[in-house]
Amino acid sequence: MDIARCLKKNKIKFGKFIEEYLFSRNNICLIILILDIRHKPTENDKLMYEYIKSTNKPYLIIANKADKIAITKVEEACNNIKNELGENNVIPFSSDRKIYVEDTWNNINKWRQV
């Protein structure tokens, strides 16, 4: 069996696992989609976004690696992701430099208390 076929089988298996998990768990209070702030969302990112929306569960999009771009470009990069997805709920984050952490936790905690 070639690698491409093997990868496709694993992708399908993983997709079924995620579908079952997201649709069968009633105690999920928030789904978080993490995207790289430096790049436009890929086709897989867009597919996952649409899939998450279809669950009708609350979700948050985190634009990670905000420390890898100039601070003056963060808002523009988030806006690019928002425009690409047609979504307003995108927040920047950096785990390395710990910037935007408080805002991220505030957003997450809003859903934890619902």
Question: Briefly, what is this?
Answer:
The protein is an alpha/beta fold and 114 residues long.
Biggest sheet, in brief?
3 strands, parallel
N- to C-terminal distance:
48 Å
Q: Report strand order across the widest sheet.
A: 1-2-3
Question: How many alpha or pi helices?
Answer: 4
> What fraction, in percent, of the residue positions are helical?
40-55%
Categorize the overall geometry. globular
Query: Under CATH, the topology is which?
Result: Rossmann fold
Total domain modules: 1
> How do the helices and strands follow one another from N- to C-terminus?
HEHEHEH
- Pick out the low-confidence regions: none
Please give the oligomerization state of what you see. Answer: single chain
CATH superfamily membership:
P-loop containing nucleotide triphosphate hydrolases
Beta content comes to 5-15%
Rg measurement, Å: 16 Å
Q: CATH class, anyone?
A: Alpha Beta
Q: From the 3D coordinates, which CATH architecture would you assign?
A: 3-Layer(aba) Sandwich
How confident is the prediction overall: mean pLDDT? 87
Category by helix and strand content:
alpha/beta
Number of strands: 3
Question: How would you describe this structure to a colleague?
Answer:
The protein is an alpha/beta fold and 114 residues long. It has one domain: Rossmann fold. The protein contains four helices and three strands, in the order αβαβαβα. A three-stranded parallel sheet has the order 1-2-3, sandwiched between helices. Strand 2, helix 3 and strand 3 form a beta-alpha-beta unit. It is globular. The mean pLDDT is 87.
